[in-house]
Amino acid sequence: MALSVSIDSFLSNHQSQLGFVHHDGQVHSFRSSNILNLQKASKTPKSLSFMLSVKESKPHNAVQSNGRSSFAQTAAVKHTTGSVTRTQGLRFAVVVARFNEFITKQLLEGALGTFKNHSVQDEDIDVVWVPGSFEIGVVANRLGKSGRYHAILCIGAVIRGDTTHYDAVSNSAASGVLSAGLSSGVPCIFGVLTCDNLDQAINRAGGKSGNKGAEAALTAVS
Ligand SMILES: Nc1c(NC[C@H](O)[C@H](O)[C@H](O)CO)[nH]c(=O)[nH]c1=O
Ligand SMILES: CC(=O)[C@@H](O)COP(=O)(O)O
């Protein structure tokens, strides 16, 4: 059964955790200890661009060839989405693993390029190096709790070897990043490659499958 939630009940349920900027640019609700800290840390405190934009979409009936209305139900409610254009005053930390550095450096380059393309200022980005992907979570958690950043981008490259070590490191990296986000309340973005071989990693670090660091940075902005 589909769950239908109106924007009003969504807002009243989440206003303690999130701030919202309506499409008219007005802040409609805004609080939480981290966000307050962020507000203090922000160079331009009145910039609330990191908050989610609430965009109104007009109800419309998408009629399928069989004559039935397809997503009329979802089209009838307001949708909430992040913005990749309102970046003024956004601050990011990037936690990057030194292990497989020839890959993680490329991912980092991709991420910094994306930040630049989205007008995030160099002085609003801190890069913190850790030994391996296993250590990313603990540092991301600490940075998240500092209240200085709007999102933490986590970068690593775990490449399968001969033993089950790969599973331990990649699963720990994923759950570490997840826990860091949940416990700090600051989005911690998973930009850790988990690859079966070196080729896969190279392809995803600026090769033929793109640059996953760049993609993860866009997620952080959003
Ligand atoms: N094998 C990989 C590691 N291993 C190192 C661990 O992340 C960790 O630093 C060590 O176990 C000490 O706690 N790290 C990666 O990022 N990628 C690997 O492929
Ligand atoms: C992440 C890994 O599995 C790797 O670096 C360790 O390789 P191995 O399993 O051959 O010890």
TrEMBL record:
One of its GO terms (cellular component) is riboflavin synthase complex. Gene3D superfamilies: Lumazine/riboflavin synthase (3.40.50.960). It catalyses: (2S)-2-hydroxy-3-oxobutyl phosphate + 5-amino-6-(D-ribitylamino)uracil = 6,7-dimethyl-8-(1-D-ribityl)lumazine + phosphate + 2 H2O + H(+). One of its GO terms (molecular function) is 6,7-dimethyl-8-ribityllumazine synthase activity. Keywords: Riboflavin biosynthesis, Transferase. Pfam families: DMRL_synthase. Its EC number is 2.5.1.78. GO terms for biological process: riboflavin biosynthetic process. Pathway: Cofactor biosynthesis; riboflavin biosynthesis; riboflavin from 2-hydroxy-3-oxobutyl phosphate and 5-amino-6-(D-ribitylamino)uracil: step 1/2. Belongs to the DMRL synthase family. Catalyzes the formation of 6,7-dimethyl-8-ribityllumazine by condensation of 5-amino-6-(D-ribitylamino)uracil with 3,4-dihydroxy-2-butanone 4-phosphate. This is the penultimate step in the biosynthesis of riboflavin. Oligomer forming an icosahedral capsid. This is 6,7-dimethyl-8-ribityllumazine synthase. It comes from Lupinus angustifolius. The lineage of its organism: Eukaryota, Viridiplantae, Streptophyta, Embryophyta, Tracheophyta.
